Amino acid sequence: MSLFFQSVVLGVLLGGLYALLAAGLTLYFGVMRVVMIAHSAFLILSAYLAWWFTTETGLDPLLSLVVTVPLFFVAGVLMQRLLISRLRPATLTMMSVLLTFSVALVIEGMLGFVFSGTQRRIRLPYSGDSLELFGANIAVVKLIAFGLAAVSLGALFLILKKTQFGQALRATIQHPDAARLIGINTDRIAGYGFGLGLATAAIGGTALALDSTIYPSLHWHWIGPLMAIIVVGGLGSIPGAAIAAMLLGLGQSLLQIPLGTTWAQTIFYLALFATLMVRPQGFFGGRLAQRF
Amino acid sequence: MKVTMHHRLGVLALASCLTLTGCMSSGSSSSGDDGDGPITIGISLPLTGDFSEPGKGVQRGYEAWADYVNENGGLLGRDVELKILDDQSNADRVASDYEKLINQDGVDLVFGPFSTRLVVPAAQVAKDYGFLFVEPAGAAEEVFTQGFDNLFYAAPAVADDHYNYLADAIEALPEADRPKTAAYAAMDDPFAMGTAYGLKTRLEEMGVETVVDEVYPPNTTDFGSIAAKIADSKADVVVGGTQYQDAVNMIVALRQLNYQPKMAAFSTAPTNPEFPEAIGKETEGILSPTGYTPEADYPTNAEFVEYYTEKNGTPPAEDEANAWTTGQVVAAAVEAVGCADPDPECQQQLIDWLRENEVDTVVGPLSWDAEGRPEGAHLIQQYVDGKIRIVLPEDAAEADLILEKPHW
Residue B177: which domain range? Predict the structure, then answer.
């Protein structure tokens, strides 16, 4: 029983992290129909920046967010304006795979060149600390990562729902032509939307760096599960991605008890196949996603 | 325009010079098997491709060994000369390299390449020509089950035997003090699993109950659930068949669940200099097997470390040591038998001698079973007072084994 409860706790924490890491990915697709293979490479880049910040200054890695979030936002806007927007609209989705794949390779190569292939981990005084809740241990670092996920997803939700920029972005997601007709500068909005997605990668990468060992090629292990999450959740739907992330994270954690690690990982791909066969628009998004 | 023409002529002249000298040098080396010239040793190594890092390490070890031998009177009074080809980490290439070395270049002896995947095809070629084949890397079981009667692995132990000294030490305890339960988690990789399951077999024979037995794929990023299973079992011993990042992530995940084993052993990772940086001061008491350490006081090791460090500026690591060991093993056979030529009779004598005898090397005394498995075990290291030290076997120990691991 205690193992079951502990696994539920771990699964929820893991699901929260997955939700944060997947949020940006679904946003790019929603805004621009771009498949952003480099999203996980940016996660690892931000994780490296957090590690580097901590080794150089000795300060807590969370403080690196003050620099990385604006930096990634600007990088996202520039990447959209200078690279993605030059792809032909007719083949955008397919060509964006190639383009962002190459960006991922460039980031991986740069990380290897600058920081070497040595595997790094941020040494935190509280890395092994945990709180006890009804017999289950909740690791402090995982709780911080979960908190970061909750706060960022909440903020993202508020931005999209309550601000004028958010309305414009949602209008661009739903119907770009109509949005242009009512005077929205969809190009600029798409750039900001892309920047917003990359800003979540800065937060996600820092959350990831708190509790894992990082190396330049690590992003290949992440992109598969994250893609599966956003398809299951419905491409373009942030709440859908969050729900799918939570369910799959919890499912993975619980399936490990009877099946072991190797088979538990397949839940992502089984869910992906099932979604594509039964409900290609995704379980939680679909038409609803159009209205956010 | 005229300048270009000159350049072209120059390049042509240079190219033909190179071709000529190339032919000449290969002509002279093939006549080197008559007994008086240098002893040529043919080697193919992965100097580019997947295994280029360890491949270069092995190359440094071989070259240091050859220089050392030549500075100290040579082998049978003759100089040794290495002929090293690059197989690009490619299994087809490595076979044709050894064909060429034996057939065209007429080398007197061959040394093995790096890693199981290349050792197997290379050993097959050597076997076809009746050559002795001593190799510095290739510890997986499949190397020893192909029926090679000419192969010898120049390292202390195959993966399954890495923990033998630790198992012996546990067996020597009074029954009441032995651990009762053990948890195993291993990466799905022949080497990593071999180390953990080697210890598992020994502990199960002693009656230590296996309470967790997990295998995880190399791309595993989250170790929370594996750690939850181990923590829930409250096993006395935790054994990790690990490489690097998996061990670090697993240890942190176990600490987060407040699991305190009496004994914790992980392969590979703890001997990595990054390890204490990542884990911090909670490394105390963690055990790990190691095939080589510059501090080991086997005869000839101090000399090797000093010579190698002077030549390369850094102390040798395991790959370099295993290459040097390969040289020592072949040299011992050559000196004992008194021949070094490609003649099958001479090669067979070398093989027969190694089958029967023990050789003192920088990784300890080595002897082999009929399939070429070394019959030793790895040294066991442990973090004692914040530094990794040899604790087993007792005659090589730098510090006492901590049996009750402090809390991490």
Answer: 161-290+378-396
